[in-house]
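Why does residue order matter? Because the sequence determines the fold. Keep that principle in mind as you read this record.
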Amino acid sequence: EPASALLDAYTAAGEPVPAAPVGRGIGLGFDEPVIVRDLPQTAANEQLAPGMVLLVTATVSDDAVGRVTSHQPVLVTAGGAEILSGSPFWTPERTGAHT
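Structure:
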């Protein structure tokens, strides 16, 4: 699947795509792939493949409430994505994630 699918998720949710990267490789800095709205062709060319680990950043804004940003390490698997962090707020049942 192209990495640009992470950008498309914002559009599908009716949220503006933030300027900050929505995904990046995990390492000492901004390791590849770097998925950011200002580089849509780069994101479209990068393929997410099983075995990759990304830091996925989700930002949701509401004028009345403010902004919430979350950073989650995610393992790409053949069957979907597996969230690698543990939190009572990020269970598969609450997020709809496939593990």
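Helices lie at 5-12, 40-45, 92-95.
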